[in-house]
């Protein structure tokens, strides 16, 4: 779940960060890799500097879920 700093981040033209569209094709192996990629992509989207606080949690679900 992201904070509003992620989903309300604007690019220089004023467009909001399209979180779902951006991450839907990503294939990363760990939550840490996902968060690093998200951070880089978000900073690229806003033009290099975030103007709001940003928080994101990534959790890797085990393939063998306990019942």
From TrEMBL:
It comes from the Bacteria. Pfam families: SpoIIE. InterPro entries: PPM-type-like_dom_sf, PPM-type_phosphatase-like_dom. Residues 3-61 form the PPM-type phosphatase domain. This is SpoIIE family protein phosphatase. The lineage of its organism: Bacteria, Bacillati, Actinomycetota, Actinomycetes, Kitasatosporales.
């Amino acid at each position: 779940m992201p904070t509003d700093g992620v989903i309300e981040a604007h690019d220089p033209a004023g467009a909001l960060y399209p979180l779902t569209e951006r991450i839907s094709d990503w294939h990363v192996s760990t939550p840490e890799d996902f968060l690093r990629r998200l951070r880089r992509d978000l900073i690229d989207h806003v033009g290099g500097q975030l103007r709001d606080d940003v928080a994101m949690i990534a959790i890797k679900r085990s393939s063998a879920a306990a019942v």
